[in-house]
Amino acid sequence: MTIDRPRSALMAVLLAALPAGCTPVATVGPSRPPLAVRGSTATVEIAPVLLAARDHFPDGAEVRNGGIPNLVGAAPVEGLGGGGAADVATHAETQALRYSVAHPDIRIILTVTEGLYRIVARRSAGIASVADLKGKRIAAIPTTSSGYFLARMLASQGLGLDDVEVVRVSPIETMAKELADRKVDAVAIWEPHADNALRALGTDAIELSGTSIYRERFNLNSTAAALADPARRARIVRFVRAVLAATAAIERDPRPAQALVAATGGFTADEVGRSWPHLAFPATLPGDLVDLLVDEEAWLAAQEKRPARERGELAKLIDSSVLEEALAPPR
């Protein structure tokens, strides 16, 4: 397996600290190129995919920083690596919706991880509840699951994004400092950045849980064209089977996956460990996924000033047949 590591100096130190046998290596013979896997390697959610590629996929996989743009030939996103085609790619459901407007052949084939988001805010800013966010400056990324989560949290109290000032902070690693420096009053972001913000504030922090409001669906995606190619489909099915095996391994002992995602993403072991309770690893296609897509589509369509797609059209973005094949006994 080959894994892309965006922070090479820190990566070398972290990889050296891994137990013997855990260092990622190329496992592909010269006769066949590795399966091209793209995903944000600076996320904790990608852990099962990394472990699958390293330990459970003898075909060989090349995991590099990227995402859905690599599936459809779209322009690379800043911070998500370069170009290059992918066989499969990870991303939150928000991006599958966004890119599928122009590329309706995108297919969600597995929910790998669920992110259990929360808002971290400063008590000293007068915030004790979601309702108190009105008029406050909130760090979030509007075009991502972070923005949708914030919108859902506000809506739960009859508020909208117009009732707050959304501040886009880049890079997201600086959100905790912006909060501690009182440049923003709250942050709505995924792990480990939410937990880093919590620690930066200490006793001034208040955590507003969104578990009952929204769960990010960090999905494995492909395209209808890739899945229609018998050879590519067979490899993708085997990779999904590898993710299922990796998920089972994580349930038994999460430490190898935690060490791997720390090394790959440039996180400390402490950051990953503290983030872990805010993640779930279902490795399935949740029954309410279409419902989420419908709700989120309405929000995105309003943002992008276009008509919202109908439920039937959105349901086509989910292809359960790959998971069904992966779960079936090998022939």
What does this 3D model show about the protein?
The protein has 14 helices and 12 strands. The protein has helices spanning 8-16, 47-55, 68-72, 93-100, 145-155, 175-180, 193-201, 224-228, 230-252, 255-265, 269-275, 289-304, 311-315, 321-327, and strands at residues 2-3, 35-39, 61-65, 88-92, 106-115, 118-122, 137-139, 165-167, 186-189, 205-209, 216-223, 279-280. Strand 2 (35-39), helix 2 (47-55) and strand 3 (61-65) form a beta-alpha-beta unit. The protein has 2 domains: 2-114 and 216-327, D-Maltodextrin-Binding Protein, domain 2, CATH 3.40.190.10; 118-209, 3-Layer(aba) Sandwich (D-Maltodextrin-Binding Protein, domain 2). The relative contact order is 0.18. Residues 5-30 have low confidence and may be disordered. The strands form 2 sheets. It has a 7-stranded mixed β-sheet with strand order 1-3-2-4-11-5-12, with helices on both faces. A 5-stranded mixed β-sheet has the order 8-7-9-6-10. Helix 1 (8-16) runs antiparallel to helix 10. The radius of gyration is 20 Å and the shape is globular. With 331 residues, it is of the alpha/beta class.
Can you name the CATH architecture of the largest domain?
A: 3-Layer(aba) Sandwich
Task: Please give the radius of gyration in angstroms.
Answer: 20 Å
Q: What topology, given as strand order, has the largest sheet?
A: 1-3-2-4-11-5-12
Would you give the CATH topology of the largest domain?
D-Maltodextrin-Binding Protein, domain 2
**Outline type:** globular
- Oligomer designation: single chain
Signal peptide: 1-22
Organism: Rhizorhabdus histidinilytica
Protein name: NitT/TauT family transport system substrate-binding protein
Keywords: Signal
